[in-house]
Amino acid sequence: MDIVVCVKRVPLTEEVDLVIDGQKKGIKKDQLAFVLNDWDNYAIEEAVLLTEKHGGTVTAITVGNEDDEEVLRRCLAMGADRAIRIEAGDTSRFDSFGISKMLSRVVKDLPFDLVFTGVLADDDYCGMVGMMVAEQLGITHANMVTAIEIEDGKVRTTSELEGGLGEVSLIELPALLAIQTGINEPRYVSILGIRKAAKKELKVMDLSELGMSDEELSPMAIIDEVYLPPETEGAQILAGDPDKIASDFLEILTKKGVME
Amino acid sequence: MSELFVVAEHRLGEIREITFEMLWKAGELAQEHSHTVTAILLGHEVSPIAESISDRADKIIIFDDERLKNFNADIYKETIAGLIEESKPILTLIGNTSRGMELAPCLAVRAGLPLATDCIDIMFKDDKLIAQRQMYSGKIFSDVSFAPSAGYILTIRSGVFSKDRIGDRQAEIVKKDFPLKDMPLKKDFIEFVETAAGDVDISQAELLISVGRGIGEEENISLVKELAEALNGVVSCSRPIVDKNWLPKHLQVGTSGKSVSPKVYIAVGISGAFQHMAGVSGAGTIIAINKDPKAPIFRTADYGIVDDLFKIVPVLKDRVLETKKG
Lengths: 260, 326
Prior knowledge:
The complex is a heterodimer. Helices cover 28% and strands 29% of the residues of chain A. The longest helix of chain A is centred in the first third of the chain and has 17 residues, at 38-54. Chain A is globular. In chain A, the strands form two sheets. Chain A has a nine-stranded mixed β-sheet, sandwiched between helices. A two-stranded antiparallel ribbon of chain A has the order 2-3. Chain A has seven helices and 13 strands. Chain A has one domain (3-210): HUPs (Rossmann fold), CATH 3.40.50.620. Chain A has helices spanning 38-54, 69-78, 96-108, 129-137, 191-196, 207-210, 242-255, and strands at 3-6, 9-11, 34-36, 58-63, 82-87, 114-118, 140-151, 154-161, 165-172, 175-179, 201-206, 221-227, 236-237. In chain B, 29% of the residues lie in helices and 29% in strands. Chain B has nine helices and 18 strands. In chain B, α3 (73-87) crosses α4 and α5 runs parallel beside α9. The interface between A and B is large, with 88 and 105 residues.
């Protein structure tokens, strides 16, 4: 069972004040901490769990610069066998379509039974790359996968639907599965573990090696402008010391009829 | 003048709300720009579903076949790609749902059309299509435009457009022969399973105290449980808490969990991602406790407490207990 997992390094933006960059095409990222995209963390873990059980290899792959190798090393420490970074210069000039083309060009020449991606990336929230890769590879797929079992050369998946319903399918290999959070409990990665994994193969390929030009990767969807959310009336903030806040809090609960 | 395609989403014989929301927006755009609205309906024995949207579209194209009884993205993709090639609609709208997110990117590649996902608004500025989206969990908005194309595909976030079910159109029903009766399938539907069964039904609770990622560690959940106990309320949570196995799935509020409608919803350490907020749209009053004043939840909550939950939640609990003692 050979599994390729497409991953992305994303900034941590919770509890952080985001600042729009000068071109209004994105946010300033120089002060932000970066992590492996949450969904991808689950995807790598699931791939490692499956190969521990059924044998085979896990290859982690990303499109990005040298800084992005940090998440590949994390994947290697979690148990991936090797990693590939596609060096494409400034990736902000590509859209999901272009990224999916690069990924599928590389994956096509790798041995694989399954390709995993996360459902979404925590930065742009597009959720497009995975299924686009599947279509370009001409393989079938399942979205929001919360359970996987391998049986007789096929894979049984549960896909999460809205409203607490799951859909169970039996899928032929090879296939692409977009992995949902919560499918497993991703293992802890220590600094020592990352250091040990430094011996594993991390290959870098650039666009010319892929035989791809900027022209064929030109974006179909372009960010015109980013901006802060329009002002809304918003919540009435309970101000003052904790005592005053507690009084106001109790008054609201009493008024709304939930205090006995 | 062109057609606007809306791909109808339905499940277990019932139309999904998102279909009405997309038809509402398509209707508005059609009126402004002299387009027509065409609903695309794939399924088996779907006449009642067609009936329910017949005043919201100018045309309903139906593919009715036993093979379409269950959703299959490969079949949807091939069928709709054929229709797009034939009619060249300027827009094709698909729900940004679990199924829509599987279908749309494949269809975009297959049909060679630009795609924007999870759109919260659609505009034409000087005849140029603009899709409005959110990034970074709703902390940043973006306007997306596209390379020139004969048509565009957009997926639409649930709950952003009107659910209004009454329209003033009269749909012509066009039944087409399903062209893919012999297409080999690589994916077979097996069954539906309930993923959120449990003993407590949070959808019936009058007072919910809901805990999110801000709680940090599993043992801290007791803080929220104690507040809930003091208030005789019920504990619920957001997705990250269930992902970490700290609370069971049946307590999860949001699109993939339960929709709730308590009199009061107290959100503790929940940032307010739209998937979560979609589940609380029926709440009477929302009180949010979060230390990040820019957390999206403060945009929709009625009342906010901007403070460290570890400091304020115990104070609130003590005060509730004191008051009850009288």
